[in-house]
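Reviewers of the previous submission asked for a worked example of the structure-prediction workflow described in the proposal, so we include one complete record here. The input consisted solely of the amino acid sequence. No template or homolog information was supplied to the procedure at any stage.
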Amino acid sequence: MKIIALVLVGLLCVSAETQTRSPGQLLVDHINSLILSIRNEQTEHDDIYTDQYTDIKKEVQDAVDALTRATEHKGRAQAAHASATADLISDITYQQILEDQVEFITTRRNDRAANFNKKVQNINTSLSLIDGAEQIVNEFANSSASFIQVTKHFNNMFLQATKAGNAGEYAPLLSVLVELSGDGNVSVDNINRIRQLLNELREKLSAALSQLTDNENTQIEVFQARKNRVQDVITLLVNVQGQLTAYIAQLQATITKEEDIINSATSKRIRNQNLLNYASDMCNAFNTEYSDSTGARRKEVELLTKLRTFVEQRVEEFNQYGGDPTDVFASYAKQGSAQAAEAQFLQLRANLRARK
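From that input alone, the workflow returned the following structure tokens.
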């Protein structure tokens, strides 16, 4: 009965529009229009649901992503900062070790140079005494100098040899002098023997001085080369120290920046979490509304589809309602009160218009 009333309402709504199509056809068109309108409304509702859900999730995910990125960046910066700081400490430690090494080898070189100078001085003193010994031996050979003078000078030579640590080299000469002091016989052979021994001493001391000087020069070259190498490494470490210091400062600035981002992102996350909670409540309500509306539209479409089928099957019958609407009430009067039928019809038409 309600389906017939709805059809009659549609017929009354479309009968005044045009007389070129039959009332039944116009009613089918109107039903199709209602079905299309409902489906369009559902499509719009689907889009709103999808967009709203996507926007809410995106806001939350953006805050989480920002916090995650900032935390990761800060972690990497802190790890790099710790590593660079450890490298800086090692660099400074190595510098100190190498500087201590330079100081050590420099001190040792100075000690060796002082020892060298002392040996050179002793050798030169010994050579000078040998020159004086030759002169006094010549005077002794000419009887212009006494044996006591010779003995005194040679005694100074032996003391100097003892001081220089090479007294053993003077043993043959000492033996000759002891022999002279024993028999008092100063022969030409003895004088020549003394001169020969003095020349041999001079040659040995000169050779020793030359060897000593060569060794010293070699040691100086070795020391300077080693010192230069160590100084080069120290210079490199100083440069690395400067680079590490600048890098650490840069990392510290990055850490501070990321901490600011983390604080901001944390606040944003808390704010967005509150929004998410609120949005979740809205989404739950929206989901309920969406489900209810979707179900209602589905039922409406099913009802209108059935109605359209019903009308299409009775097109000729509905074409008879193209005249006076009171004819409709006459047919209702057979089953009950015409006044009640009219009231029901008017209510159905009002509901249909409100739906549109």
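Helices lie at 2-15, 23-141, 147-164, 171-183, 188-313, 315-319, 326-333, 338-355. We consider this example representative of the routine output the project will generate in years two and three.
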